[in-house]
Amino acid sequence: MTMIFGIPVQALFGQLLIGLINGSFYALLSLGLAVIFGLLRVINFAHGAQYMLGAFVAYLLLQYLGIGYWPALIVAPVIVGLFGAVIERTMLSRLYDLDPLYGLLFTFGLALTIEGTFRYLYGASGQPYAAPALLSGGTNLGFMFLPNYRGWVVVVSLVACLGTWLLIEKTKLGSYLRAATENATLVQAFGVNVPVLLTFTYALGAGLAAFAGVLAAPIYQVSPLMGSNMIIVVFAVVVVGGMGSIMGAILTGYMLGIAEGLTKVFYPEASNIVIFVIMAIVLLLRPAGLFGRDA
């Protein structure tokens, strides 16, 4: 059996794959958080609940309407995005002129309300959600066995992350969004509907979280607790990457996912805290984060 640093190569690459999969979810979720914070200056503590909502919407679409995985990849993010748009327009928008702490407290309360509702309706145990038949089985790469669905998750999350970055950084719509956060009055003077842009931004972040939830459903099951289990780690990822940095959120998500996977190989006892240790070190050396701008 081939060994690397005394570790069987299959075990090493298996943990690397797990790290990449976790990193894919970290990147997608931290990207949504970074978009909302970078453009709205709102720390969206409801992001984990929106991730959970995406998985539950996919599950309910299948259970009650017979709508399977592939349509749910589009329908669930749209439904959760519309829900986010309603929340932003009716409640969150009233807090923009107040201290950012009010937005954090509101979204934290919203997360507890959503999670509590689904725990009451479905209990704390997970609901199974099958992967699509097209992605069943796996592929033998010689040095490891790659489950097809997990490979799909890595690829599609990377495409979604890069697509969102291009939308924000390289399109006219993205330039309007970024300009509106710097000087909303000036942008509105040019005939741009700034409130609609802000609503779209929050809906986009919520939709990204829901998209990650649909991807996660066949791997982690559908549970009311899946968002609260993930959100603290994702906040750590955003802090390490730099609050509001879009590309920082993407790169750091994958990097920390891989670091977590490798830690499970070489020092399993530290795998649950390695991301927070890295966060502490980064904050000591560079408080703005790896890709953040110094104030």
From TrEMBL:
InterPro entries found in the cross-reference section: ABC_transp_permease, BCAA_transport_permease
Record keyword Transport present: yes
Transmembrane segments: 12-35, 42-62, 68-88, 100-122, 151-168, 200-220, 232-259, 265-285
Annotated GO biological process: amino acid transport
GO cellular component terms, A-Z: plasma membrane
Topological category with respect to the lipid bilayer: Multi-pass membrane protein
Family the UniProt entry places it in: Belongs to the binding-protein-dependent transport system permease family. LivHM subfamily.
Name of the protein in question: Branched-chain amino acid ABC transporter permease
Organism: Ferirhizobium litorale
Species lineage: Bacteria, Pseudomonadati, Pseudomonadota, Alphaproteobacteria, Hyphomicrobiales
